[in-house]
UniProtKB/TrEMBL annotation:
Part of the ABC transporter complex PstSACB involved in phosphate import. PROSITE patterns: PROKAR_LIPOPROTEIN. InterPro entries: PBP_domain (IPR024370), Phos-bd (IPR011862), Phosphate_ABC_transporter (IPR050811). The keyword Transmembrane does not apply. This is Phosphate-binding protein. PANTHER family: PERIPLASMIC PHOSPHATE BINDING COMPONENT OF PHOSPHATE ABC TRANSPORTER, PHOSPHATE-BINDING PROTEIN PSTS. Residues 23-61 are annotated as: Disordered. One of its GO terms (biological process) is phosphate ion transport. Its main location: membrane. The keyword Amino-acid biosynthesis does not apply. Gene3D superfamilies: Periplasmic binding protein-like II (3.40.190.10).
């Protein structure tokens, strides 16, 4: 839209210069009128600058992407205030269901019960893919014994069975030291995903420190050689100088293994869910969502996630345009 306005203004100004070059009083007057009209159009554009507020909440995993986009968007649209909370995927959906937010970030697909609650509340929504993530299992760099774990190892470590978990339980050559666990909180989509693919709906080890703030998990794992935890790939990338990532079934999370799906079963898509009514009725919401889809890939790569193929963003933009 901004490029189109610039092209139109340039065309008008070009016409004025051509008329002025022809000479004559009438041409000069016409030129002045054209310039005045151009000035008037510019003033009108400024008066019609987009204003409003947009609110979102949800996944801490998606937060680095969305917070980066919000910061850059603020420089583009100074009249639109965008706020994004980080109460976890589940907490974000609770606010979305209550109509408190325009969009909800999620590190897992929406659950059937959440979709049913939105339908009951009369909230129609659209799911937009943003990026790929590889849920990363990490230990302290002081841990010099763990390099690779199998899915069965992870389950043995993380499922509550009433025992005190020792590193030597996984490998008798490892230290006979108690394992210290850090994990995302139960409102987190990362917790839900781990629960689905690793715990298989069994209880998480009861001694784990849980937090919706991934930075707290990072700090805890950094400071304890017996600690282990998991969170989104971007948080590992941001702290790789002080953390060690653990390979799963011989595959380390990288941009390539996450995008290809070789880092299985811990590769996953990241989403945002937006209110159809907010998109269609509020130009600020539409503009922000359009900016998000146009910039999500670059921002995902910038903060440590993996961009989708361009055709996926094009599908999202088409779905957005259909709601306008």
């Amino acid at each position: 839209m901004r490029k189109w306005k610039f092209a139109m203004a340039s065309t008008i100004l070009g016409s004025a210069l051509v008329l002025g070059a022809c000479g004559g009083e009438s041409e000069s007057n016409a030129s002045e009128e054209e310039v005045e009209q151009t000035t008037s159009d510019t003033a009108s554009d400024e008066e019609a600058a987009l204003e409003g507020s947009v609110s979102g909440d949800g996944s801490s995993t998606v937060a680095p992407i969305m917070e980066g986009i919000v910061e850059e968007y603020a420089a583009e649209q100074q009249g639109v205030q965008v706020t994004v909370g980080v109460s976890g995927t589940g907490g974000g959906f609770e606010k979305f269901i209550q109509g408190e937010t325009d969009f909800s970030n999620a590190s897992r697909p929406i659950k059937e019960e959440e979709a049913a609650s939105l339908e009951e509340a009369g909230v129609d929504y659209t799911e937009f893919l943003l990026a790929y993530d590889g849920l990363s299992v990490v230990v302290s760099q002081e841990n010099d014994w763990v390099e690779d774990l199998t899915v069965e190892d992870l389950k043995k470590l993380w499922v509550e069975d009433g025992s005190t978990k020792m590193w030597s339980d996984i490998n008798p050559e490892w230290p006979e030291e108690e394992v210290v666990f850090y994990a995302p909180g139960t409102d987190s989509g990362t917790y839900d995903y781990f629960n689905e693919v690793i715990l298989e709906d069994e209880d998480l080890v009861s001694t784990a420190t849980l937090s919706e703030d991934d930075n707290i998990l990072v700090q805890g794992i950094q400071s304890d050689p017996n600690a282990i935890g998991f969170f989104g790939y971007a948080y590992y990338v941001a702290n790789q100088d002080t953390l060690k990532v653990v390979s799963i079934e011989g595959v380390e999370p990288t941009n390539e293994t996450i995008e290809s799906g070789d880092y299985s079963p811990l590769s996953r898509p990241l989403f945002t869910y937006a209110s159809n009514a907010a998109i269609s009725e509020d130009p600020a919401v539409y503009d922000f969502m359009e900016y998000t889809l146009n910039n999500a890939g670059a921002m995902a790569e910038a903060v440590g996630y993996v961009a989708l193929p361009q055709e996926e963003y094009d599908k999202g933009l088409a779905a957005l345009e259909a709601l306008k």
